[in-house]
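Figure 6 in text form: structure in, sequence out.
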């Protein structure tokens, strides 16, 4: 969740015939992130080529949708990253640096950029002249950080990735601008990576697979090439809803300009001209301290919220309820719940706004009429799920709070198996998949048991 850049090295510009098939059809509704990865693996699906991370978006075309009006500049765009997967797999050999063997080739430009950014930020922080601290500038930095966080949590995450509510053009524009303040990658890349993460969480197809450790899931995944499965599965994600959104199209077309203006220039200029701050200190506050903090707060959802905490809703998965992440990530740390009900606009079961600032603001926009169709599961559905799969730490179950529920959940997980999330009731699913949440979850549970038995047979 959240990244500076996700572009990959092009291994071969000459595609192998039949290597990539057409993009998903526009008529097909986005499945977002609720599918069963094991079902997808058994069916052997592999479809469209990965679309470009920057520049103009290429919109899938279909003969029977010829009446749809699409900007010609978007139609004519040729994607930069049509990576030949066969060649990519063949050359996917981890780098060896000073005896350290990595699982993937390193992206040295990102290694240098991210490392240097953090080193400079820490160095400036340690030498910052505290006697020149301007509290107006400090409050401004917190405000800008909050805007950036809201753009990520309410915009890129809850709205564009999971479609957990609907928004009018004004709110969508505000969400896009707020996301630009965060200074992360394009909305298209962010949404695609996060949908893949949910659909294949903690498998090789997960861009920031937490099974590979804290550092990898936090920031290391940005410093090395993606696992081939991430690219393959990413090409299967239906992104037609993102391609059709004019706000996203505008963001994609002017990505660099918007990022520079809203993430770096405006936040730095305001304290200089309004609060009398010096250029050097304003730059340090906004382009170093605030920006680096914002990035790490977002990354913590991928790392800390997948490794530490309780699992009251599903003990079989790694995502956990982590209050510290919820505080710094504006309500995104209730992650065990979120991975079970990803389409809930609250991203948590909480009935109030305690450490869920994003939900409070969204409810405000709902009262204004700018946001509507705020999705959330029934209390009965939540109760059934947590009683069946939870680790017993839910407040309604009143069990011993001294137990190490995180350890219990981890010990009962089935390797790298991804369990299906409770599906969004508004979406249609493949005929081969069950339409009820209980049957889908049982189906995955049976798959996990089959894998356990097969492992035992191999060992014996």
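Output sequence:
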């Amino acid at each position: 969740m959240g990244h500076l850049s996700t572009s990959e090295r092009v291994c071969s510009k000459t595609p192998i015939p039949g290597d990539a098939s057409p993009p998903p059809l526009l008529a097909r509704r986005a499945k977002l992130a609720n599918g069963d990865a094991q079902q997808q693996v058994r069916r052997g699906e592999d479809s469209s080529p990965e679309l470009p991370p920057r520049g103009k978006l290429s919109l899938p075309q279909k003969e029977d949708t010829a009446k749809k009006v699409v900007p010609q500049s978007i139609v004519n765009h040729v994607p930069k990253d049509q990576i030949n997967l066969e060649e990519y797999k063949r050359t996917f050999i981890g780098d060896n640096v000073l005896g350290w063997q990595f699982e993937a080739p390193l992206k040295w430009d990102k290694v240098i950029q991210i490392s240097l950014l953090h080193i400079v930020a820490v160095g400036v922080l340690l030498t910052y002249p505290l006697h020149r601290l301007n509290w107006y500038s400090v409050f401004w930095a917190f405000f800008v950080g909050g805007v950036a966080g809201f753009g990520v949590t309410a915009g890129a995450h809850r709205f564009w990735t999971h479609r957990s509510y609907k928004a009018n053009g004004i709110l969508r524009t505000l969400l896009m601008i707020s996301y630009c303040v965060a200074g992360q990658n394009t909305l298209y890349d962010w949404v695609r990576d996060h949908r893949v993460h949910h659909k294949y969480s903690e498998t090789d197809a997960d861009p920031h697979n937490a099974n590979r450790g804290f550092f990898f899931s936090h920031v290391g995944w940005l410093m090395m090439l993606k696992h081939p499965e991430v690219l393959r599965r990413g090409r299967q994600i239906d992104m037609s809803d993102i391609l059709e959104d004019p706000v996203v199209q505008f963001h994609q077309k002017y990505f660099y300009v918007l990022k520079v203006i809203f993430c770096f220039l405006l936040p730095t200029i305001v304290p200089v001209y309004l609060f009398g701050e010096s250029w050097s200190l304003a730059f340090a506050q906004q382009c170093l301290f605030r920006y680096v903090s914002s990035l790490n707060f977002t990354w913590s959802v991928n790392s800390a919220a997948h490794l530490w905490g309780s699992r009251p809703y599903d003990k079989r998965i790694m995502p956990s309820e982590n209050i510290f992440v919820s505080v710094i990530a504006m309500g995104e740390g209730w992650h065990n719940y979120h991975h079970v009900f990803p389409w809930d606009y609250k991203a948590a079961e909480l009935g109030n706004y305690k450490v869920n600032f994003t939900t409070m603001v969204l409810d405000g926009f709902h009262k204004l009429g700018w946001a509507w169709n705020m999705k959330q599961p029934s209390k009965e559905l939540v109760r059934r799920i947590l009683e069946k799969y939870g680790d017993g730490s839910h407040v309604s179950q009143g069990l011993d709070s001294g137990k190490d529920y995180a350890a219990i959940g981890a010990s009962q997980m089935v390797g790298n198996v991804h369990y299906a999330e409770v599906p969004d009731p508004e979406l249609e699913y493949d005929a081969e998949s069950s339409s009820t949440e209980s049957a889908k979850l049982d189906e995955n549970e049976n798959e996990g048991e089959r894998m356990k038995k097969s492992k035992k047979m191999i060992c014996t």
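Caption detail: Residues 45-397+410-442 form one domain.
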